């Protein structure tokens, strides 16, 4: 299973690293981090934290392509969209985390497809032709999308089960001790205190840049 | 709030990136990734994925120090232990994820303290003088330790609440949409199917390297 995770300027690190930590432990997994240019990539908090091992031009063909979210993700036509369309033509799975679904949709890959996104950007999916579904993980054919940031871990475990079976996925889950116990119940707009939901809605530009 | 996250050869990426994604969003947070040598650091899966911005010698003083886990973490005496003892002398919080607690304990910082670790390495804590507690997050004074890999996210949200208050922590939680929904209930040895628990116990060397 060859996996390409695309990085770009202002990517959200956990969107990429959560799925990598799960999918990279599949038997025979081969993960490549790719970007327009190989080398260090700046995250949304301004850190030169992640490294792309290969440029898009050098990226090997992959069975699974994943687009993480970030601040101001590449939703304009350009090399990332061209590359994604070519990668999608031969992929078994085309996937995203957070606003990565807007990138896939803007590249024309989710037209008429059910998809999710960060709760603050679900309403942007229809403008790119996708059908928004407010679930944590949405699978429509070979297109699998996750909600915001941390949802990439749940997406990856779901995919691990589909790709290698429940036992393999559960072995990975136990290996990374993914038995989440958040100290607060504020992880979705349905559960968080209303003033916090309102604050983030009013500052959407600051959080996702669009 | 100045935060130093220490990286080392064969670190587990999610152990570092989960807490960074939470703590880095605290108001006024300043995160530094540091390592014996500045530059790319190899993760436990062999990827040159993460970058240390500064060497231990260059690392600024920090209020919070975090030691992520990894494959064969630095439990032998050496520069990492020396640095941790000096950092701990002025820190407000000294923290770890996964087998990072073994590193803190081996450096002499958890003697007589309650601490947690990856479920497979809890039994190693007493040999370094710490008192093992099989909880996801354990706080004893200024020492806060998390269980395996993904538990670093829960640790960081707990710390965010203590440092900046529940509202700030909940705002971060909603921003990263941390409303976990694992597709399997296999994240702890109490919940996972017994054959999977046994398999990992028998292959502990492969998973944590000690």
TrEMBL record, chains A, B:
Higher taxonomy: Bacteria, Bacillati, Actinomycetota, Actinomycetes, Micromonosporales
Source organism superkingdom: Bacteria
GO biological process, one term: regulation of DNA-templated transcription
Domain (DJ-1/PfpI): residue spans on this chain: 1-159
Keywords: Glutamine amidotransferase
Name of the molecule in the record: Glutamine amidotransferase
Family matches, as Pfam families: DJ-1_PfpI
CDD domains the record matches: GATase1_PfpI_2
